[in-house]
Write a structure and sequence with these properties.
single chain; mainly alpha
Length: 35
Protein backbone atom coordinates (compact mmCIF):
# COMPACT_ATOMS: atom_id res chain seq x y z
CA UNK A 1 0.00 0.00 0.00
CA UNK A 2 1.47 3.33 -1.04
CA UNK A 3 1.65 6.37 1.19
CA UNK A 4 -0.26 8.45 -1.38
CA UNK A 5 -3.21 6.09 -1.33
CA UNK A 6 -3.37 6.18 2.47
CA UNK A 7 -3.17 9.97 2.43
CA UNK A 8 -6.01 10.19 -0.10
CA UNK A 9 -8.27 7.87 1.88
CA UNK A 10 -7.61 9.80 5.09
CA UNK A 11 -8.44 13.09 3.38
CA UNK A 12 -11.61 11.57 1.91
CA UNK A 13 -12.63 10.25 5.32
CA UNK A 14 -12.07 13.63 6.98
CA UNK A 15 -13.98 15.43 4.22
CA UNK A 16 -16.89 13.02 4.59
CA UNK A 17 -16.95 13.45 8.37
CA UNK A 18 -16.83 17.22 8.05
CA UNK A 19 -19.59 17.19 5.46
CA UNK A 20 -21.78 14.99 7.65
CA UNK A 21 -21.22 17.21 10.68
CA UNK A 22 -22.02 20.30 8.63
CA UNK A 23 -25.17 18.68 7.26
CA UNK A 24 -26.34 17.67 10.74
CA UNK A 25 -25.69 21.18 12.00
CA UNK A 26 -27.62 22.69 9.11
CA UNK A 27 -30.54 20.32 9.70
CA UNK A 28 -30.65 21.28 13.37
CA UNK A 29 -30.65 24.94 12.44
CA UNK A 30 -33.53 24.41 10.03
CA UNK A 31 -35.58 22.61 12.70
CA UNK A 32 -35.00 25.43 15.16
CA UNK A 33 -36.10 27.97 12.59
CA UNK A 34 -39.23 25.95 11.80
CA UNK A 35 -40.23 25.69 15.47
Amino acid sequence: MSYNLIKKSIIKYIELKTYKNYFNYYELKQKKILR
